[in-house]
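#data-curation
PF: Archiving a pair of folding outputs for the training set. Convention for this channel: one message per protein, sequence first, structure tokens after, nothing in between. First:
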Amino acid sequence: MARRAKSLASDQVEGSFKEQFRRIHDYAYEILRCNPGSTVKVKVDEMQGESIFGRFYTCFKACKDAFVLSRPFIGLDGCFLKRKYGGELLTAVAKDANDQMLPLAYAIVEVENKETWKWFLEILVDDLGGPEVCGACTFMSDQQKVCICSWKYFYSHYSHELY
């Protein structure tokens, strides 16, 4: 009973998850309007006339520009989202000249697997200047086989190390 009351109160204050997901295109538009040159990708599936959230990718223009001046290092990681609808948060970070973390891009995906990592890495590499720029970078992950296998599959013809 208390959980349902808390959920109803939360919906009234913050809005329901369904309503927020319906406005995902508005959020993407606002990012692009406020940050020209940024990249936002939204994947929504249509089922029975209703839009169902699939994936969301963001890379801000300021992060792209800062990457040019950073060290040739990209860290990749994913974590669970533990709210009502779940999912995974995929992230890419770099190290700037002061050895500080520089967020590059993030994506919210339905599940962490080879396909979602491949999708994330394809867009990320294009955002950061293509294979000729990223081919010179060292990529580090938390040794999740999904991420490493996706990277090896996607860029098998480039010679760089995965740690």
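PF: Second:
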Amino acid sequence: MTEQEIKTLAKGETETPTEQNQEATEQKTYTQEEVNDMMGRMKGSLTKKLLKPYQDLGDPNDLRQMKTDAEAKAQEEAINRGEFEATLKELAQKKDSEIHKRDSIIKEYKVNTPIVDAAARYKSINPEQVKSLLNDRVRLNDTGDVEVIGKDGNVQYDDSGSLQSVDSLVQTFLSENPHFVQATPSTTNSTSNIKGNTVKDFDPTKLDYNDPKDRALYADYRAKMGIN
């Protein structure tokens, strides 16, 4: 073997491993598409593994949609509930207003009117003024009964243990304050008939003020007593 052949052979042996390494390197090179494909398979495998315990619940997209729908429904119900509560509040205010109006009417006929009538019977020079002075001394209790309140704030009773009447309160007040009484009482004994009774015996607190006939009797009574 000539020297040249030996050199050629040695050169060939030296280059062979390099070519093999190059081929191996070329085999380990992947395209972007291949990388994406591998990542996609890996992601799919992981997703499947992680979601496996929840498969019985259904598709995740369906679950998310159900959650969105539930939140939207809850919000709509909250809005409707707000309108309902506003309606309830309005009705409550209307009811309170009606109750106040009813109580005012009841107080007018069970408290104010009896004070004015009693003051007129006992010859007060100004029955309306007496009403103003005694109005805070008379109230309606929870059962609708009239209560006379003393200066100490306690409910007043008569000698028989019954609630003190408005008539008694007015009579006592005028006796203690004679300057509210007419200086020269009329000596004329009025016998004007009201449904068969004298004015003196007429009790306006026993009238039914929802009855037009009783309201007419009361109007006639006030006119005869000189009450404006």
